[in-house]
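Action item from last week, closing it out:
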Amino acid sequence: MVSPEVLKRFPLCAGLDEGALRQLAAIAEEVSFPRGTLIFAEGEPAHTFYLLLDGWVDILVNMDASGDRREPVTILSPGDLFGWSALVEPYVYTASARCASPVSAVRVRRDDLRRLLETDPELCCTIITRVCQVIVSRLRATRAQMVRLLVTG
């Protein structure tokens, strides 16, 4: 369990009422990873999402079929959400996450969050809407990177 005060730092939780924050805090836990740790790999079953407390996380995509060569597409900083694939079917990570520094994060398991959201439709709508906003933001950034590569390449 983490403190509801910790969750208030994240855009995902901004403006949630105290009851919702307490419920989320009860299913969340703080975790730490050393620099270089691969938190999850593209193509693996997605069962957990994370809120980055401290440090930097590289989001990488596979550049070959075996997944031996991964390249960064974005760098996440404190306040960011990652592992959103755990909340969206087919629940498979669409990229890898590797610690670019020592990392502290809040971990939430999909099954625990799902049980909570099934009991609170308003909270469900808020969380899913905010996760969708993150997905859209990352898609736009990826599109802009592709355009730059095509124009300059």
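Closing note: The chain is about 35% helix and 25% strand.
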